[in-house]
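Hey,
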Amino acid sequence: MIIKNNTLDDQIFRIDFYSIFKIDVFTIDNKKLDNLCVIQTAVNSGITGLYKVEGNFYNPTEEEIMIGNCRL
């Protein structure tokens, strides 16, 4: 999953992870993005591969998302 240079939304609304075995997470340069809670299930389930979150309004680490600090 790559979300890059999105200027319209401040959050990601819904992604179904049930049929995915491993997913790489990249959210880069989304200046309004302040809510990444939608990926918390994937991170907590251990199905994430690579994780790169940078250049967004909020850039939580993988560990922050795991403990629930997924939005401002």
